[in-house]
Design brief:
heterodimer; A: 7-stranded mixed beta sheet; 4-stranded antiparallel beta sheet; 0% helix; B: mainly beta; 11 strands
């Protein structure tokens, strides 16, 4: 089946630093990828839609200057959390659709100290 | 905005008992998908329902899509400890462009006591 790889799986950083998360579709091409954030015991909240070769589409309330998304190739999307603060600590998950089914990466647990 | 709600939020059952989670959308859905997320893990696709009134079965799991395509349910018969996790429905919504967005329900956490 389709596989999506996400890296890193866990990151701890100091407040004010930036963190980059990578999402790769390993055996298929994805012109669109999605980034979600999940707080403990809550559902997945869609943050943005990453579009290959063009600007990402952000959901209402998500700061595009804070969460930079780049989709430079058909198999790679990156999410950079800029100037991270403790309130950005969360579980970030990417997904890539293939025939309307979403295949999820394993997620990145971000802890900002 | 569009909302997808699930009830109950949490269900604790004895092994062998049945379990049902209900999913309701404020808008009509193109299709509904169900995912299972184990504690500490990521969502794993279970099934997709497309047609109004559709019913699909996977072993002990039965999925239904409502006639109005605004609600769905997942029923597990004779739960096992391996069924533990959070079950999410997710509605595929078309925003008028080329991209469909998957909006996740609030989830139901299932705990199974041996």
């Amino acid at each position: 089946g389709a596989v999506v790889s996400q890296h890193p799986s866990w990151v701890i950083c100091k407040s004010g630093t930036s963190v980059k998360i990578e999402c790769r579709s390993l055996d298929f091409q994805a012109t669109t990828m999605f980034w979600y954030r999940q707080f403990p015991k809550q559902s997945l909240m869609l943050m943005a839609t990453s579009n290959e070769g063009s600007k990402a589409t952000y959901e209402q309330g998500v700061e595009k200057d804070k969460f930079l998304i780049n989709h430079a190739s058909l198999t790679l999307s990156t999410l950079t959390v800029t100037s991270a603060h403790p309130e950005d600590s969360s579980f970030y998950i990417c997904s890539a659709p293939r025939t309307n089914i979403q295949y999820f990466g394993a997620g990145t647990r971000l802890s900002v100290l | 905005g569009q909302q997808v709600m699930q009830i109950p939020q949490y269900q604790h059952v004895q092994e062998g008992e049945d379990f049902t989670t209900y999913c309701n959308s404020s808008t009509t859905l193109s299709n509904i998908q169900w995912y299972k997320q184990r504690p500490g893990g990521h969502p794993v696709f279970l099934i997709q329902l497309v047609k109004s009134g559709e019913v699909k079965k996977q072993k002990r799991l039965t999925f239904q899509f409502g006639e109005a395509k605004k609600n769905s349910s997942l029923h597990i018969t004779a739960t096992q400890t391996t069924d533990v996790g959070t079950y999410f429905c997710a509605g595929l919504m078309n925003y008028g462009g080329a991209t469909n967005k998957l909006i996740f329900g609030t989830g139901t956490l299932l705990a199974v006591q041996p």
